[in-house]
Amino acid sequence: MDQHEILLKLENIEKRFPGVVALKSISLEVRAGEVQVLLGENGAGKSTLMKILAGEHAPTGGEIVVGGRKVSALTPTLATELGIGLVHQELSLVPALSVAENILIGRMPRNAFGRINWGKAYEDARRALEALGVSIDPTAEVRTLEVAEQQLIEITRVLERGPRILLLDEPTSAVSDNERSRLFDVIRRLKQRGHGIIYISHHLSEIPMIADRVTVLRDGLVVETLPADEADEATVIRLMVGRRLEEQFPKETVELGAPVLAVENLASGRTLKDLSFTLRRGEILGIYGLMGAGQAEIANALFGLQAVKTGSIEVGGKRADFRHSSDAIAAGLGLISRDRRQSLVPMQPVGPNLSLSWLSGKSLLSRLDLTREREEGSRYISDLRIRPASTTHKLFFFSGGNQQKVILARWMSSGARILIFDEPTRGIDVGAKAEVFAVMSRLVSEGASILMISSELNELIGMADRVLVMRSGRLSAELPREEISQQNLLRYAS
Ligand SMILES: Nc1ncnc2c1ncn2[C@@H]1O[C@H](COP(=O)(O)OP(=O)(O)O)[C@@H](O)[C@H]1O
Ligand SMILES: [Mg+2]
């Protein structure tokens, strides 16, 4: 085996989505027998690049050389044929099917009459799982399993196909240390057999455990590829985050007032175990954690979307364990959720998208306030510079940044005093980000309070008065403004 054989080569790969350039120009190569760790802040383009290699997205520019072929795009079938296997960041299992069916999907063993040989299927699946040191019942339905187990099944499914080039997109975000070390054993074995591996991680501590080389992406570009022994944490963080913080973050100093929200010993959902904090009037309180640390569940619990198991939430001194989002809205909360599609009515223009927040809990008659819709629609369009500046275009045709402004406008018009921003800049470009930050700054200077859940280090450093760092469903640190740094955030989160 030639250790330096190049299995895969990317040349100037570009990927544009409507309104966002996810990858500007990516060139890299994967060699036989190497583990290349791919790093980058959220939104740097890592997952998009992996989906291009798996044939799920077509690049809008550049070339891919793999298996002696030069192509401008792969299809999922071609990628599989060429030996490329992707373990997705978001699980791609079919919840209603069994573990065995998920692992062997499309390749279930059949008997001479073409019927599925279930005995063999379960046995094959059991063996595949065992190779990872995992014991999960192959007959169980995937939907009944924990996230960590599902993640292991996803990994097993891809490994089962024996890919020559294995792509792992944050595969250890939910699994235990023990399962992770099993996975690393498997990766090392594949490496010795001459497979090439791209491993995406947010856990910088994994670099010395597994990496041969490290490639850092930032804003859709490769910043640098370096040997693992030169990739110490300080170097890597500097490469990931880049230049000094510029004027991207127009945060003004605001005098903080009395507590408006108090959370005590809150447990909710799968991960959130024991969380206490208060949010003050005029404050932007940041929440940071690695994927799955529980930060996403805070928003759901506060907004009445997910039950509170134990502990309490108080809004303005009153008990507020909301059962429905309408109760939360009535108490003056607003949620800008990480998935805009959940919050918008895409086939309607701006006006009706604003009025959603006034309507909850009111009678049908009061719903038809068309004049107010029209007036507020026009006001916010000019106030927040929403483009296109149209009260008639459906939101479907707006860019991500402009959709986000419409959601902001909704909560401004409803008079919400406590705003939960869950990944507020996901999928929007740099210009729109700065505008969203400007609105956040204005809202707090007018007396609102913001809980800013973000995985973007820069944004927290630029905007937050204080940051709570989460690890495994618990608070691991509370950083006052002067201590909010990349190093501290990453250190306490991992
Ligand atoms: N299907 C999509 N449509 C529009 N924008 C997308 C899509 N997928 C990713 N993006 C955007 O592309 C950029 C890169 O995202 P992603 O590849 O997921 O980054 P990473 O995995 O490094 O966090 C982000 O701005 C993201 O919002
Ligand atoms: Mg990703």
UniProtKB/TrEMBL annotation:
GO MF terms, alphabetically ordered: ATP binding; ATP hydrolysis activity
Q: Which residues form the ABC transporter domain?
A: 8-244, 254-493
Tell me where on the tree of life, at the top rank, the source sits: Bacteria
Query: Where in or outside the cell?
Result: Cell membrane
Do you know which SUPFAM superfamilies this protein is assigned to? Answer: P-loop containing nucleoside triphosphate hydrolases
Q: How does it sit in the membrane?
A: Peripheral membrane protein
Annotated PROSITE patterns:
ABC_TRANSPORTER_1, ABC_TRANSPORTER_2
GO CC, sorted alphabetically, is: plasma membrane
What keywords does the record list, in alphabetical order? ATP-binding, Cell membrane, Membrane, Nucleotide-binding, Repeat, Sugar transport, Translocase, Transport
For this protein, the record's CDD domains field holds: ABC_Carb_Monos_I, ABC_Carb_Monos_II
Entry similarity comment: Belongs to the ABC transporter superfamily.
| Protein name (record) | ATP-binding ABC transporter
Species per Swiss-Prot/TrEMBL record: Rhizobium meliloti (strain 1021) (Ensifer meliloti)
